[in-house]
From TrEMBL:
Transmembrane segments: none annotated. The keyword Cytoplasm does not apply. Pfam families: SGF29_Tudor. It comes from Craspedostauros australis. This is SGF29 C-terminal domain-containing protein.
């Protein structure tokens, strides 16, 4: 149904819940989707944070067979984040677990005109 919602919370701040419509929630990757190639735009969690930032896949993902399931999977994706230049102007390659790399979801970005309830849900809801 279009009225289904999810209560979500940041891993770093579990005291706050935000109620979002299902259409504003994305499932994270399992590493078995073949949606990233070198040069692809994506969103990835910056190392040691819980926030997604725009990035570009900078090396072709390496597929390996999962030793338990036998299913090919990508464990990590190497990306370059936007605005991540070092002191010499170079942008470093960064390794990100594949489950924390998603396609650029333009339709999911918060829009001030969107009907999204950003108030904390009550415990009885």
């Amino acid at each position: 149904s279009d009225t289904a919602t999810y209560d979500v919370q940041d891993e770093d701040d579990t005291s706050k819940l935000i109620r979002l419509p299902w259409s504003h929630v994305m499932r994270l990757s399992t590493g078995t989707e073949a949606c990233f190639e070198k040069g692809a735009d994506c969103m990835a969690i910056f190392p040691e944070t819980t926030s997604f930032y725009k990035a570009k896949v900078s090396k072709a993902p390496l597929w390996k067979l999962d030793r338990y399931t036998g299913v090919p999977a990508v464990k990590e994706i190497i990306v370059k984040f936007e605005d991540d230049e070092d002191g010499t102007g170079n942008t470093p390659h960064r390794r990100v677990p594949s489950r924390y790399v998603i396609p650029v979801p333009a339709q999911y970005f918060y829009d001030e005109d969107a009907d999204v309830d950003l108030t904390t849900p009550s415990a009885t809801a």
